[in-house]
């Protein structure tokens, strides 16, 4: 994580999995609190948990700067987002590959970011789903037509070969795990490759 910070990462993205919304179990607020102490970067916490409304306070207190709840996991999403905002944390909404944009349409004015899953959530190292590019473009169109300002973040299967197409489609936050931490030549080289891949298409935001 410190290597990612040195290499110029903008945020640390933390995948929280509960063994119910997704099969794996990863980390909870105790680990997030430890991460908070280890880096100065903002913590972008992705809650892959059922009933996220029951967990947002603990993660806010642990030091999250941004909290993403899944639309598929939260029947009262609007309220969950308000709850996150009231805790002084930036609210984001995440959606699975099969979930249409219509599901999040009415919360777009109240979120800081939308996290588009470009793989099925639950484990790292899966291939990028190319059909998701149309979803990212659709989301960028909605943002333009409604005059909104949320960020478009993309999570899953991103690497030097897929990064430029998602940026071209409208994404400005790229979450990379395997491509950065699984690179045989190290985090610095991996981050440099990602930057080089998006440089020709990056637009002022
Ligand atoms: Zn994630």
Describe this structure in words.
This protein has 205 residues and is α/β, with parallel strands linked by helices. The chain is built from eight helices and seven strands; from the N terminus they run H-E-H-E-H-E-H-E-E-H-E-H-E-H-H. The chain has helices at residues 2-6, 29-38, 56-62, 77-86, 132-146, 163-169, 178-181, 187-198, and strands spanning 12-17, 43-48, 66-70, 90-95, 113-117, 151-155, 173-175. A seven-stranded parallel sheet has the order 1-2-3-4-5-6-7. Strand 2, helix 3 (56-62) and strand 3 (66-70) form a beta-alpha-beta unit. Helix 2 packs parallel to helix 3. The radius of gyration is 16 Å and the shape is globular. The structure holds zinc ion (ZN). Zinc ion binds at residues 13, 15, 46, 155, 175. The site of zinc ion has 5 residues, from strand 1.
How is the secondary structure organized here?
Layout (H helix, E strand, L loop, with lengths): L1 H5 L5 E6 L11 H10 L4 E6 L7 H7 L3 E5 L6 H10 L3 E6 L17 E5 L14 H15 L4 E5 L7 H7 L3 E3 L2 H4 L5 H12 L7
Parallel strand pairs: 1-2, 2-3, 3-4, 4-5, 5-6, 6-7
Helix pairs in contact: 2-3
């Amino acid at each position: 994580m410190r290597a990612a910070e040195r290499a110029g990462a903008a945020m640390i993205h933390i995948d929280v999995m509960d063994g119910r919304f997704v099969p794996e179990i990863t980390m909870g607020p105790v680990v997030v609190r430890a991460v908070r102490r280890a880096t100065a970067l903002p913590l972008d916490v992705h809650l892959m948990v059922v009933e996220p409304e029951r967990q947002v306070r603990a993660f806010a207190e642990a030091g999250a700067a941004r909290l993403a709840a899944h639309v598929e996991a939260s029947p009262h999403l609007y309220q969950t987002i308000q709850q996150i905002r009231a805790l002084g944390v930036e609210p984001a909404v995440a959606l699975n590959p099969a979930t249409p944009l219509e599901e999040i349409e009415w919360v777009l004015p109240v979120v800081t970011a939308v996290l588009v899953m470009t793989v099925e959530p639950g484990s790292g190292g899966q291939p990028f789903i190319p059909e998701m590019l149309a979803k990212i473009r659709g989301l960028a169109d909605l943002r333009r037509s409604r005059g909104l300002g949320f960020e478009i973040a993309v999570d899953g299967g991103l690497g030097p070969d897929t990064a430029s197409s998602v940026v071209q489609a409208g994404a400005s936050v790229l979450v990379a795990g395997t491509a950065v931490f699984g690179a045989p030549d190290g985090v610095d080289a991996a981050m440099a490759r990602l930057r080089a891949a998006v440089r020709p298409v990056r637009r002022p935001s």
